[in-house]
Amino acid sequence: MPELIRNLRDPACYDHAAGPVRVIETHISWVLLTGELAYKIKKPLNLGFLDFSSLNKRLHACCDEVQLNRRLAPALYLDVVPITGTPAAPRVNGSGETFEYAVKMHQFPPDATLDRLDTQGRMTAQQVEAIATTLGRFHTDACARAASDSPWGSAEHIWQPVSQNFAQIAPRLNDPAELEQLNALQRWSTAEHARLAPLMAARKREGWVRECHGDLHLGNLAWVDDQLLVFDCLEFNPELRWIDIQSEIAFCYMDLLQRGHADWAWLFLNGWLEQTGDHAGLALLRYYAVYRALVRTKVAAIRSDQIAGPERDAALADVRTLLQLASTLTRPLPIRLDITHGLSGSGKSTVTRNLMQTPGAIRLRSDVERKRLVGLDAMARSAGGVGQDLYTADATRRTYAHLAQLTENLLDAGWPVIVDATFTARWQRDLLRETAHSRNVAFRILDFPLPVATLRERVLQRSRKGNDASEAGLAVLQHQLDTEEPLAADEQVDIVRVDQ
């Protein structure tokens, strides 16, 4: 531990009352926890992807860190403060000549970060859903979009940090098997980048390259006072922050997979998609997830060079685990298309919520996509009744055509799909069956038969709660009962009955 950090453990160094000072070290910084306040000091490093080698560069990075993190955590980030005196006798926010800077923050319990909650077995699905909702809103409403003439988000700039990972990991690997694994990942990434380059260019033109957080893994998310706190964005390199929003979410998606939470990875991904509607970007997600796994591999490899003993062994184990995850992510998923068949209140959304997590799929909900087509939020109330506004015959045809188009794109990109809708008309079911058959994909109709009395009671309960995207009331249910086209004999081969 450097002299400065060692001496800053003395509570007398601060201009406020401080308890016993605890130090948390990462590969690029030290964080000093004093009680109510925390101070983050950047290591004087130049790692290529970041440069903190001079005092002015560290000051600039500290200022950027406060400004950028206030987008998601305005109450947490307070100021940039000088450290004066000498490393032997430092003063935080003292007078005299400044020899170092620190970011001043409100302190929250260190064990509140989601990575630690997960290690303790205290992370919940509610927190995963909060991540999806918070990030979905951030990416939709709060992220500046890259200018068309900026370098950010071009295929060439996307490749630079990807290739840099390989260059910086390889010299730190000693196991020939790990080196071969890394070489295979480099070959896959090179080929995928070439295949996806036109889509990357289109994504930039369409405004999906935005000023993101840049470092969204569970260690930078916390649960404080029953609220999600998103902190420690990537301030030191704009190239790593001005990115496609799919690259952003790939980090959290990958992190959940690494921790053995494939079900939560699917839950997170689906929740975020319902917020943003960025299904088209999923063609890039696996490429970015592999990149993110290799970012964490690089961090673990760098960390292993800085420490010794059991901590170094743990870092090297992380290198092996992350390389294996990256390799797994390159493999195609089993593809299928499931659609639902059931009237309002039959439990379709509850069952498909479970199926989208295990075995996993992208779920498309007609209640959400119908509103998205006219610019409404999923929870907005349209006030339209049967045959009105969003629920005319033409609007319904547009909705199912949109669902079919989204499904085609997702299947072509290699993702399993569940379409959650009533599918009361034969033409609706045929439309999706043809989508599956044209791609030689397994197709199922999940049938939800329930007594009418039960449906009516459930619809009433849901209407009273008002916490679901569905707007179906008793009038809608009766219209469905009056107009539905039952499953025909030639459809029986595709039916899976869902009993509840």
Kindly give the count of domains. Answer: 3
What number is the mean pLDDT?
94
Rg from Cα: 26 Å
Question: Helical content, roughly?
Answer: 40-55%
Q: How many angstroms does the end-to-end distance come to?
A: 60 Å
| Quaternary organisation of the protein chains | single chain
Q: Segments where pLDDT lies below 50 for 5+ residues?
A: none
Explain what this protein looks like in three dimensions.
This protein has 500 residues and is α/β, with parallel strands linked by helices. It has three domains: 3-107, no CATH class; 114-329, Aminoglycoside 3'-phosphotransferase, Chain: A, domain 2 (Alpha-Beta Complex), CATH 3.90.1200.10; 336-497, Rossmann fold. Helix content is 48%, strand content 15%. The chain has helices at residues 3-7, 55-69, 114-119, 125-142, 155-169, 176-205, 238-241, 245-258, 262-276, 285-306, 309-329, 348-360, 366-372, 393-412, 426-438, 452-465, 474-483; strands at 22-25, 29-33, 37-42, 77-86, 89-92, 98-106, 209-211, 221-224, 227-230, 242-244, 336-341, 362-365, 417-420, 442-447, 495-497. The strands form four sheets. Strands 1-2-3-6-4-5 form a six-stranded antiparallel beta sheet. Strands 12-13-11-14-15 form a five-stranded parallel beta sheet, sandwiched between helices. It starts with a helix and ends with a strand.
